[in-house]
Amino acid sequence: ERVMTQSPATLSVSPGEGATLSCRASQSVSSNLAWYQQKPGQAPRLLIYGASTRATGVPARFSGSGSGTEFTLTISSLQSEDFAVYYCQQYYNWPLYTFGQGTKLEIK
Amino acid sequence: VQLLESGGGLVQPGGSLRLSCAASGFTFTSYAMNWVRQAPGKGLEWVSAINGAGDDTYYADSVKGRFTISKDNSKNTLYLQMNSLRAEDTATYYCAKDRTGYYAPLDYWGQGTLVTVSS
Questions:
Q1: How many Å apart are CA B110 and CA B55, to the nearest integer?
Q2: Which residues of B touch A43 (CB under 8 A)?
Q3: Averaged over B86-95, what is the pLDDT?
Q4: How many CB atoms lie within 10 A of CB A21?
Q5: Which tens digit of pLDDT belongs to each residue from A60-96?
Q6: Distance between CA atoms of B116 and B32, rounded to whole angstroms?
Q7: For the segment B42-89, what is each residue's pLDDT rounded down to a tens digit?
Q8: CA-CA-CA-CA torsion sign (B74, B75, B76, B82)
Q9: Residue A30, class by beta-carbon neighbours within 10 Å (0-12 exposed, 13-18 middle, 19+ buried)?
Q10: Cβ separation of A91 and B103 shorter than 8 Å?
Q11: 3-class DSSP assignment, residue A81
Q12: What residues of A are in contact with residue B111 (Cβ under 8 Å)?
């Protein structure tokens, strides 16, 4: 099983600043990596797939990078609606998906 | 695309429950469908998947032998039969569609249905 590890667990950032979230896979997942955003009381929302492709309707301030075992989600100029929990997910072993434990992005 | 789960509720340990997910807005037979759960205050855990035709099923080790995923393509409905329920199965259960039908992430999710296993 490919284990996904996210860091940090919590990230405190001021609105208008940028944020960088990390995800590491225990074995290569190539570019089969997605990022999701989840707000309280809501279902997850797909943000990024293929490690770097934004899903439909996702603002350009969200960008993804990486391949193999190291991945990054970068959010430039944080807006109030961006404070949420973010999960990475590998689908290299589709459909046996595994998720990271999540990074909570909170307002500083 | 709309996914609407139902069937959650309170059940005693060892009991059974069947979840449903009514799908609309896409060709139901063209995409794999999944169940993903989230225990209160915890992260996401993939539970089970079924291919578009309904003849291939997959399970997480934590539910294998206790849960059964199925679909009725004539009704555009996904199911999860949950037997021998345990306290650790308490979670919000989401149904989710994969993006392309093969080696893809989950692009649409339902609003979730809460399952509570407690005496």
A1: 23
A2: 94, 109-112
A3: 98
A4: 22
A5: 999 999 999 999 999 999 999 999 999 999 999 999 9
A6: 26
A7: 999 999 999 999 999 999 999 999 999 999 999 999 999 999 999 999
A8: negative
A9: middle
A10: yes
A11: helix
A12: 42-43
